[in-house]
């Protein structure tokens, strides 16, 4: 199975290095020296990672045969694609590869259908499921333990316990005026195991 693991950004310096937007939780495995990656567009590759280093919080890669800024700049916006065994699982049992989560049915604890995962967005603070609802609209679900309570790869479903307003328009404002009693939830969401 082929998975996009990064997108090449700007050239960095004059010796052929490029910045990359990482799209994998295992960059050291997928983007390490010696890794051979297919590309999109295909005419650009395959590319072999020669060196990699982190500079100012960004991963910089240099590819075999690309030794100057001009060559590096020609790779801009190229997608890097790794061949991954679909049976591979991350070492941590609470982690999943994107391809394992794509197309999972999203349901509430009572089996009420919410939708289907169509995209996973990786943000610095957390990952988000983009879920297509039956009516065609989309909703974003933070992939955090307090909201996504179960991932069942056998049944192909993700069970969620959303706070009010996440998947509907019935948001309750907890920090209202002094005469509001609120609903007991905290703005950052109830932690697992705490009463709401």
Walk me through this protein's architecture.
It is a single chain. This protein has 196 residues and is mainly β. The chain has three helices and twelve strands, in the order ββαβββαβαββββββ. A hairpin with a 6-residue loop joins β3 (36-40) and β4 (47-55). The chain is elongated and about 55 Å long. The model is unreliable at 171-196 (pLDDT under 50).
Write the layout of secondary structure elements.
Blueprint: E1 2-12, E2 17-22, H1 27-30, E3 36-40, E4 47-55, E5 58-63, H2 69-73, E6 79-83, H3 98-101, E7 105-108, E8 113-122, E9 127-132, E10 138-142, E11 148-152, E12 157-160
Parallel strand pairs: 7-12
Antiparallel strand pairs: 1-2, 1-6, 2-5, 3-4, 3-6, 4-5, 7-8, 8-9, 9-10, 11-12
- Sheet/helix structural class: mainly beta
Mean pLDDT: 80
Number of helices: 3
Uncertain ranges = 171-196
Task: List its salient traits.
single chain; 196 residues; mainly beta; six-stranded antiparallel β-barrel
Short note summarizing the structure:
The protein is mainly beta and 196 residues long. The chain has 3 helices and 12 strands.
